[in-house]
Records
---
Amino acid sequence: MDFGYLTAILFLPLAGIIVIALLPKPQARTIRLTALTFTLASFILSIAVFCLFDRSAGAIGQMQFEEKISWIPAINAFYHLGVDGLSLPMVILMTFLGFLAVLVSWKIELRPREYFIWLLLLETSILGVFCSLDLVLFFLFWELELIPMYFLISIWGSGRKEYAANKYLIYTLVGSAMMLAGILSIYFTTGSLGMMGLCGLSVASPVIPFAAMFFLLFIGFAIKLPMVPLHTWLPDAHTNAPTAVSVILAGALLKMGGYGMIRLCVSIFPEIALRYAPLLVALAVVGVLYGAAVTMRQRDLKRLIAYSSVSHMGYVLLGIFALSQISLTGAVLQMFSHGVITGLLFAMVGLVYDKAHERNLDNLGGLARRMPVITVVFTVAGLASLGLPGTCGFAAEFITFVGCFSSTAVGGIQIYTLLGVLGIVLTAGYILWMLQKVFYGSPLEKYDGVPDADNIEKVCIFSFVAVIMLIGVYPAILTDVIKMGIMPIVKLIGL
Amino acid sequence: MPHQVPWLIFLLPLFSFILVSFILRPFFNHRPKLGGYVTIAAIGTACVLSFWVVAEVFGAPGHKLEIPDIQWLLISDFSIHIGLMIDSLTAVMLVVVTVVSLMVQIYSQGYMEGDPGYHRYYAFMSLFTACMLGLVMADNLVFMYLFWEGVGLCSYLLIGFWFHKPSAADAAKKAFIVTRFGDLGFLAAILLLFYTTGTFDIEELHGLAIAGVLAGTTLTWVAIGIFAGAVGKSAQFPLHVWLPDAMEGPTPVSSLIHAATMVAAGVFLVARMYPLFEYSEVALTTVAVIGGFTAIFAASMGLVMTDIKRVLAYSTISQLGYMMLGLGTGGIAIGMFHLFNHAFFKCLLFLGAGSVNHSTGTFDIREMGGLRKVMPWTYATFLIASLSIAGIWPLSGFWSKDEIVVSSFANNPILFYLAMITVFMTAFYMFRVIFLTFGGEYRGGASSEHGSHEPHESSRVMVIPMVVLAVLAVFSGWLNVTGAFGAFMGHGEVCGFAEGFFGILTHPLPLISLLLAGLGILLAYAMYSAKWVSAEAVGRAFRPLYTLLYRKYWFDELYEKVIVVRVLVDGLCAALDFFDARVVDGAVNGVGDGTAAAGNALRRVQTGQLQVYVMAIAVGVVAIAVFCYLFG
């Protein structure tokens, strides 16, 4: 490989940071354009990788675009990047959202230079998690993400922003500490940090039982996902974060949890995963229904979407631990789909709040006449979220359901799946209720003269809609890639 | 016939949707009629092509056309193809959908004139027609489910078309959520089918059911699940509550979606999956019982409604119940034949209601009256459709209703009596509407702030579609006078036309049902035209019964106030929300506060005074020494 695509994708936002930092007394506009250029370049390169990705049967189970340089020889750590069918969609998702997050932040007036620096750093760190094939590198990027998140929420947030930022940081750090213990125990058992070499780990004398290692890693990821009951940091973080951060948080950051579960928990410990799958599947279904039920009671738009994320990420957990080819593919597609849909939902909430200065559902109403474009796009996002056919929400959920229902890994999973399917009615309930509260009914006087989306906002939200429809109409564009990453993992499970 | 033709039937309205919403709406908003012309042209062409397909199907061996599939999704052994299934069932539905849709689109040119959402209206109507055509042609369940939800979406969007009215927004939401409960069953059945058979293909599933591979409890559950979807879509008991509210949409929408096509999709679904029902006694009985019960249950509520569209809505639910009864007791041909006839006369009734509303500004039949003279065309066509739905020989409704009555007679006496009583009720409520709307003297129309309405006949663009449909309402039933329709659908034998046309009057059953219908009309005449009996007096005499019917058996209150609000939202969800905030998050914050408190407590130890530290060290050393001495 002559050109280090992944390094370029990974470090272009970082390069953007350096440029922004070095600009002498830049105007806000220059900063925005710089950030936009670098994130767009990163996005275009990731699309290039997607196009060049080898989809032939021979490439199944192979890492592509690999880069491997010795980094810390003393502990056998490498600077090792690569993508397969599992990580590539996540990389594209992140670069796509990174680019759009800059557009979403177009109107940031408060300390724009620092803001965009943190935003770009956030993008690099999340991309790093998805591209790393070395456990130390993976953990480094995993932790790096906390720093920009902390500052973005606590400075540019709203409401109880310091509380939310602290809660997010500490909660995630607890998970990270467990993860680090898990990684260390893997290292001391095998002496290796290469993520791919560890698949289907079987050593006679582990330092601690494999199940312990599995759960140390799993809890770290479950907090990120988030899995009920480890989810309460999420609504607080979302409610108080600035819009762009919510977009990235819901869109890409949560996916680090699901990605980690598949890449590490399931791949390295397939037998443990199989043994504990019934428990985790049950927790997933509880998460789906519990999340949806709590969503019904929310009055704050952002909190409502945040809780709906808890419910939707339950499907990811369900798909992962149904442990079949189809269900895992569905779970990865669900991660991508949820990323785009919820990203859009948060962007739309941000727009509504920008224009109407109101997020409480009880005070909103009749906005459809005032902001027709926003209404249409918000409705599309909502319908995608409730899994309407023709949108990626349906494709992902349907594949997940089929995969789970026909899985042989967990006894009685049919019942769990059907309970999970019940979630789609609840989702329809709160989404339609929300749309009605915000947009329908007679126009309110206080919102006279509230503007609709401007051109930059239209570019941004229409891009989201285009992806939602594209994946919805032809999901094979992604599943053909995803299944290549899933196949070797399913082989390890051996069902 | 090239394979592209059926595809084109589906794609034309879809293109029209794209054209209207992405080009005409943003760039030609000042030329509203354009959207209508595009839609009419697209659906008109689709209609012509549909007749071509019907002709081809008629000539094809086994009445079936082979259309190659397209691969859509493949994950290991899980593959979904996109394909079309063109058989006699599809052919009938193609005719119904395209003809009715075309008539409604033409009519809408007049009805929606001057509405600011004109382009939006036609965009949604095109999308609906495309989805409906996709639904009837889909050859596998996933593809079908896709369009199934698609028509549901269009229904949602069009019921809520005037979204600034809270009642419309409520009705739209209700329709979507109630039907989604049914869809849940459909989706579960699809999952179960794939799990047991590994395929979504409808023809393969037919084969497996006929061969007995798919049998027993699994088959029953699958069939019940599919039927649950049909119950939601076709507004059968107990998911009937959404359809009357759906009348909040524009009247042509009610006509096309909530009378002729989409609500009939449930009946179509059962017919499409009929082999699965056929081999499950339980499932087939369920279909018949739910259908028969819904028929009389809905008709009873139709007796007392004062909103013309609500009467028609209950009538639709009741007639859909008939179709289900026909499917459950007779077979595909009987149920589908009623669907076919019903589509035309019920569509016409709604268009008539729309025409009356245009003229008087109200839907309340108590404010109408005397329109016979000023709206002769509307009156004549409405009367024909009413006679047809009442089952008067030789109009189309007579032929299909008779078949259902006969098959239920052969099957189950209770269902037969239910069907017969419904015949009487149907004739009564339809002629109650006729006498109140068109008979007597004009009672002033809408008592709105716009002043009184001067009633007038509707414009020609609205009348012509009504006349076309009236012709169909008379003659569409004659297709099966000889048994030709039944033979096309796969069973029954053909006889001579004259023999069938007049011979039917020599049987006792048709005569009894004709008599009942006549009695219904007579009673309506007695109460609302000749006033031999005062309607108010009857209402007073049966006050509790009247209240029961007028309040729709309190189903709305039960579902919305009790189950949704009390039990779910204010009960379970509130409890979980409390649990989440106090227990789950409380635990998290508790751990945080606990740690902070522990830190606070321990902080006091760090006094910074050397004496205290040395003291502590000394005590520690002594303690260790003592410990070692005692236990060491």
---
Amino acid sequence: MRAIYLAATVMNSEKSKSFQEIILRLQSYWASQGCAVMQPYDMEVGAGTFHPATTLRSLGSKPWAAAYVQPSRRPTDGRYGENPNRLQHYYQYQVVIKPSPPDLQALYLGSLEAIGVDMEMHDIRFVEDDWESPTLGAWGLGWEVWCDGMEVSQFTYFQQVGGHDCAPVAGELTYGLERLAMYILNCDHVMDMPYNDPQSPIPLSYGDVFKQTEEEFARWNFDVANTDVLLRHFEEAEAECANILDQTHDDPKTGKRIIMAHPAYDQCIKASHIFNLLDARGVISVTERQAYIGRVRTLAKACADAFVQTTAGGHVQ
Amino acid sequence: MPDLLIELFSEEIPARMQGRAADDLKKLMTDGMVEAGLTYASAAAFSTPRRLCLTVEGLLAESPTVREERKGPKVGAPDKAIEGFLRGAGLTRDQLEERDTPKGAVYFASFEKQGRPAPEIIAEVLEQTIRTFPWPKSMRWGAGSLRWVRPLHSILCVLSDKAGSEVVPLDVDGITSSKVTYGHRFMAPKQITVNGFEDYEAQLKRAFVVLNAGERADAIWEDAKNQAFANGLEVVEDAGLLREVAGLVEWPVVLMGEIAEDFLGLPPEVLQTSMKEHQKFFSVKNAKTDQIERFITVANRETVDNGATILAGNQKVLFARLSDAKFFWENDLRVATSDMASWTAALSNVTFHNKLGTQAERIERIAALARELAPVVGADADEAERAAKLAKADLSSEMVYEFPELQGLMGRYYAESAGETAAVAAAAEEHYAPLGPSDAVPTAPVSVAVSLADKIDTLTGFWAIDEKPTGSKDPFALRRSALGVIRLVLENDLTIRSKPLFTKADMRVDSDDLLSFFHDRLKVYLRDQGVRHDVIDACVAMEGNDNLALLVKRAVALEAFLKTEDGTNLLQGFKRANNILSKEEDKDGVEYSYGGDVKFAETEEEKALFVALSSEGPVIEAALKTEDFAAAMSGMAGLRAPIDAFFEAVQVNSDNQTVRRNRLNLLSDIRKLVGSVADLTRVEG
């Protein structure tokens, strides 16, 4: 056991060489800690929290442990690939464990070591930063984690999601992967960061992979996206979410009790992303903003209400 | 006498909550123990990011046994009542004693309340303290229901005396008390077993934890000052930041770093705000040039490279932050020098309030109002209007978007760079003032005009849409705006009729209602300066009460007058005159306002009062015309003796109707004259 630990330490003390190596190391670290390594959710979301593996699974009484990469889209942050660290599409690494284990801080610090942060040389700090998502009707207490003055992760104990108290409490860790990787790989511009091993036959930088898409999406997000269509899609997603949740719980075809919390939640995710696009297009005024956020929150709450009535949500018949 | 040591060890406590939490721990524990009979000699509490600690010296080993007596039911009361009493007191019937009282025979129970050992009491009080701790925000974790500011990991609770030390046994939701704590998270994470406070503090220090927040802050400040001094520089003082930083570390290590040359041209406030807000860095400046040249960061550990890696990391983060700031600054300057008005135009996309339109529309209104106010405050109308149009332009700038707290200040820099006059640039910064009751009030005429216009527009707007403050709710800070107007007017001694101004600002506003809100704020403001609310009421009741400066002059003079002997007596005399007059007028169903005639005066005192009225009347009238309220008050003082003498010697209700009516008319003259100075009927006493 001890020998293995030492070997692992030696391996990890070697610095990561690429963006993808950091992701791979996080994956294997959290897998070794017993998390189900999941795949990204197949819809556009603003943050890893929106993945149903976090939002919905943090509700109810059933234990849960998952880790995954989540591509995240924030249309307003697009800078045509020119800003050193702002992107309209980026990656978050997300870990969610319910109930939060007593050694979650130590586990987290272990993950930093796993990606090559030497605890003896760096200054790691837990600085108060409470988290709140008005669109999800969710909040929690925790910190932003600093490494030598740089925020490398968000660490949150969920208290409420979708208006429901979290009991047990889920612990959530979110790593902003590009920023963390830039720090570890010592890059000043995200586009210069090695995506794969620079010694590879075909070395690729982050820019090789994403510069093109950042430009294209920035233009579409800011200037081209058809706002009439988006507005309609928002309304449709909102209506469909309500429609799904309005259905009787007893499926007339199979006779089973099926509450469609997840399909409804997909519509909520859709509405939320469309709202972000509309926001980037600049067609939402400050006052309207609040109203839109409120509408998405209403959907999120309804989905949470539905989820806690499902078996996965801990409902016992 | 034993000593008590408690440590509550948790995950990182927000820096802003630590000091208060240590005080609360001390208060709740000592109050609880004393209430249970456990007195002590002294107590002190400490905090670090991961622990709250309490040390109590000279505690009683057990609470004293006391004799207690309780009155029970009457003799002969139903058995149920007696049994209930016995149950409550934990006694049996044979321990009761009958005593005669004025209300008949009553049972009394007299018994000894046994003292209890300290550990028992401490455990109870500590559990209660933990369960009810007043954190500003608390949370649950794991599968439990206990609340703490962040997950609570261990409870150290040790009672020690010469003979040795023992753990006070305690279990709070599975967290059992012990003698164990832990050192610095990274530098000495191992368990430490402690036997008392001195031992605890010393062992912690060896484990790289400075327990005392004050000691940490002092160490940081000393070291920061010395490092700066060694480089011929000085640290910019910031007590709040120092306190916060001391709450972020258990083992402070001060590191000074350089700010890259590229950024030294940024305004010092931008450097300072960016470093403080984002990084919690202190600014280090060159005292000769006032330029910020370096920064100081406080790490939470020592490293073999003496912090070189940590400093390099911090420097890199700062570089990125300041690159952003510089990018904003340069972009902003480009806009400011070419077309600052485009920023104001962009504010037409920003809603101020959905019923009050956009920021751009608001700026138009403020500009019109500032122009209106310009002559009154001694500003040039064009300049005031120009200043108002540009004052909020910086809200569109990138820098203010990033650092909202720099609003106004950036406006000043940008207006200066755009070649605006110094007065226009100053107004951009100063028009937000005064923000708090002790904030300095602008005095430059252009700034005053814009500041007043801004606040009056806010007030009239929210009044017109009926969004007034209620109780403790004042979401738009309208009380603060009104106080701002009051202070601007008074401290600059401005003669402004408010009501026409309110109507000018917003046609829809109920200007009487808004004015009475101002009068209420004025009362609060003047109360702090020692002017009574009824004195203000007496002046508010007068003509021209929407001229706040005049109103206050009158109130201050009246307050001073009423404090003199003449003032108190005149008030009594006036009230007596007024009471008699009102009563007789009621009775007769007429108003005596013809004016008295000295030829019907019978007594000397009556004649003397006529003389006093005719000599002081014109004095008072003239004083009021020139708003010389002190002179008006001394005119009133001249009436005091004749009024006193009149009531001493003269019976108003004479049988001779002519004489009676003349006297009532005389009293009416007094009422009218005094009433022209202030409405004394509203003054108490």
